[in-house]
Amino acid sequence: MQELVVDSYSKRLDSYLSSALGISRSKVSKMIKDGNVLVNGNKCKASDSVNIGDKISYEMINEEIKVEAEEIPIDIVYEDDDVIVVNKPNGMVVHPAVGNKSGTLVNALMHHSKNLSSINGEFRPGIVHRIDAYTTGLLMVAKNDKAHEFLQKQLQDKTTTRKYIALVWGVIPNDTGVIDAPIMRDKSDRKKMAVGTINSKDAVTHFKVLERFNNATLIELKLETGRTHQIRVHLSYIGHPVVNDPVYGRRKLIDETGQCLHAKTLGFIHPTTHKYMEFDSELPTCFTNILNKFRGD
């Protein structure tokens, strides 16, 4: 993302950005709606006010990008008229953006279903929450706006169940633990997140040790909040980064691909039946191959 610092007194965000970038307010509004504008690292609305010193991060989406349906195989764990639960593979980006114009989960979903929610704009139809390209596992997708709002509120209220499995460097001595550390944009690299207090958001991750090896630990993690890169940032912060993490990791296994982080369990209340549903997924081959190397040692 590019960045600019507000240099005038209180103005509407869409008005200020339109003037600063020399583009129409309608285009700015679309950028904001599609999630391509952040104010001080936070999501925003076109009507929000900005003041001197506020930092606006933005990504100019190439208007030539067209989100088209693509016949890409995806692992559908569950589907009905409201919800799709997908088991995302290693390396698949969730939605199109500059640098990832095709081959995303959204492209595949558009081929699979004609009904996807519109709340997150044309670049993220149906997408209620995301996981990183090299994180594997379960995602819930909304097929209509009513379902989307219902599922999104559960995320905001912290009533969903999201459990991850990770293989991390180093031996964690505690059997259980809680990482309670606020997360903000990295001051030196806007594409990264970091633990800090400047324009940060509360972030809480619970972990439980499943298995220990000579120089690594297999753990289960439960999210209390859902910040960008939360698990990876928190584990790096306590000195136990995810194995094969290309951004926050210390070392990499050259002969294997895929970071060892998997969204294994996903639970939520169904938007229509109001019954609790929970789904589970197996670790992918890219994860188990690395895990078996440590077990072999």
Q: Could you characterize the architecture of this molecule?
A:
20% of the residues lie in helices and 28% in strands. Strand 11 and strand 12 form a beta hairpin. It starts with a strand and ends with a helix. With 297 residues, it is an alpha+beta fold. It is globular. The model has no long low-confidence stretch (mean pLDDT 89). It contains 6 helices and 16 strands. Strands 6, 7, 8, 9, 10, 13, 14, 15 and 16 form a 9-stranded mixed β-sheet that branches. Strands 1-5-3 form a 3-stranded antiparallel β-sheet. It folds into 3 domains: 2-58, Structural Genomics Hypothetical 15.5 Kd Protein In mrcA-pckA Intergenic Region, Chain A; 75-156, Pseudouridine synthase; 161-266 and 275-296, Pseudouridine synthase, CATH 3.30.2350. Helix 1 crosses helix 2 (25-33).
